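Incident log, structure service

09:12 report received: a user says their structure output differs between two submissions of the same chain.
09:20 pulled the input from the user's history:
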Amino acid sequence: MTTMTTGSDTLTRDALAVLQPGFTGTSAPDWLLRRIGEGLASVGLFGRNIVSAPQVAALTAQLRAERDDLLVAIDEEGGDVTRIEVRTGSSFPGNLALGAVDDVDLTREVARELGRRLAECGVNLNWAPSADVNSNPDNPIIGVRAFGAETDLVARHTAAYIEGLQAAGVAACTKHFPGHGDTNVDSHHAMPRIDVDLDTLHARELVPFRAAIAAGSKSVMSAHILLPALDPARPATLSPRILTGLLREELGYDGLIVSDAVEMQAIAGTVGIERGSVLAIAAGADALCVGGGLADEGTVLRLRDALVKAVRDGDLAEERLADAAARVRALAAWTGRARGDVAAPGAAVQEGTAPGTGSDIGLVAARRAARITASPSWRPLTAAPYVATFTPVMNIAVSSETPWSIGGELAALLPGTESGTYGTDSAAADVLAAAGERRIVAVVRDEHRHPWMAAALDALLAARPDTVVVEMGVPRATPRGALHVATHGAARVCGRAAAEAIAGV
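09:34 re-ran on a clean worker, output below:
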């Protein structure tokens, strides 16, 4: 049962203001428009809401007809995690590719162009970049989403990304505080734990977040991870010691603190989303991300009413909720001013770059990120090959709708290219039978994390040493094959860069 509220009092408006919900459909449902009128200050977009850039622009215009200063957020990291290009693959390589190039000017320019396209679609808050140091190579959820495993590299590229994105008038949301890189559990499914001492946390995890704060990141997203050295009882999202004591007081951060999605099992499966939402706001969070999995009006009402009830019952200070809501509105005001600054006469504008088209900076970056190891006898392919893609179970941050591999890109260069997909129950013999006399291009993703994949590749190379290998994940395994291409990510442009290397374009 929900608490009855009037929909107009200050407390209720503040409770709605701290929510960042999602919804279903490619146009705004009536219930969402009503709640915006009642005080909802943010909306999150996901792949299910997106068909094309013009459609997103029409959708955000519809939302802003109800409230001009609405925050419209999206999880658009580029690379493997894309929402705007969920059905085609991203025009931008992800963080690991940018870190592999290690050119901060390039990272800044890629982020600025990504931000420009988001802004033209009406999006003004991006839940990116990931500032995690991927120190655990077996990490199942970060991987190529990190700039790398070296602290200072991650820090300088995090800062450059924030600068580029916000120069386009889109607020950055640096994540996943205080660092999700040294985990071997996905917080979508369970509670990760990082058992390192305070000195290690300060020397490794926190360095990129210090850089983000110095770069002016307008928001920071908390992680649902347990760090006993900081708080042995509560995960970061629910911990006053971490959000208020560390982030606010020790690091001096004064921007918006956003929770990671409260419906993730690390929260929903422990304290539940209602209690978790109250604890997060009490701990120092200002906004609650929800809607990746729960995208209905009932969820919004449940969380709204849980916050209102907590204040009325004395479990949440009314001043804390009011402060959180004020920070949300302050960020919305900044995006309005930034939008005006970017569009002002004399502002830097790239010509000929409509949303989803124009600047090829993403492809330029993907080409520079490709690492090629060729045998002495290697010659580019001139005949159509067979592409065998070994597909692991994907982490939940990557949409199942987003295509990857290089079959389509290679077919554009070598017409007649055929492709097949292989999983844990497949054998090299299956690939050999499908390929026939064609040259084989084996595409893998995080080979080092998947023994079945490495075994299949071993057998394939033993039978066909002239096989080309393309690694589209974290390139930890030793390069092998007649040609080995490490793309540092599975974005569409990364596939294009690999295809060009194979075809000698």
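09:41 both user submissions now match this output. Likely a transient worker issue. Closing.
09:42 reviewer note: The two ends are 63 Å apart (CA to CA). The chain has 17 helices and 14 strands.
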